[in-house]
Amino acid sequence: MISSSRIKSVDFYRKIPRDLTEASLSGAGLSIIAALSMMFLFGMELSNYLTVSTSTSVIVDKSSDGDFLRIDFNIRL
């Protein structure tokens, strides 16, 4: 099993120089939660960035007299 002193060494949030500090279990827990959260968010953003999505829309403006402009599409397969 992992010892308490090894978990305490993960504490990222020390405010005083390392030789004058004492790592705490709560600081290590906060550090582990923060690191896991950052990895999760980075993974989600990377996944979203690599996902290909296409969207097509056609919007026709009204003409100056308020009528819509008629456009016909002839599509053959």
Automatic annotation (TrEMBL):
The cross-references to InterPro entries, in alphabetical order and at most eight, read: Erv (IPR045888), Erv_N (IPR039542)
Q: Where would I find the Endoplasmic reticulum vesicle transporter N-terminal domain in this sequence?
A: 7-76
Instruction: Indicate yes or no for the key word Membrane.
Output: yes
Coiled coil region boundaries = none
- What does the UniProt keyword field contain? Membrane, Transmembrane, Transmembrane helix
What are the TM regions of this chain, as residue ranges?
Answer: 20-42
Q: Name one GO cellular component term.
A: COPII-coated ER to Golgi transport vesicle
Which Pfam families does the UniProt record give?
A: ERGIC_N
Name used for this protein in its record:
Endoplasmic reticulum vesicle transporter N-terminal domain-containing protein
From which source organism is this entry? Rubroshorea leprosula
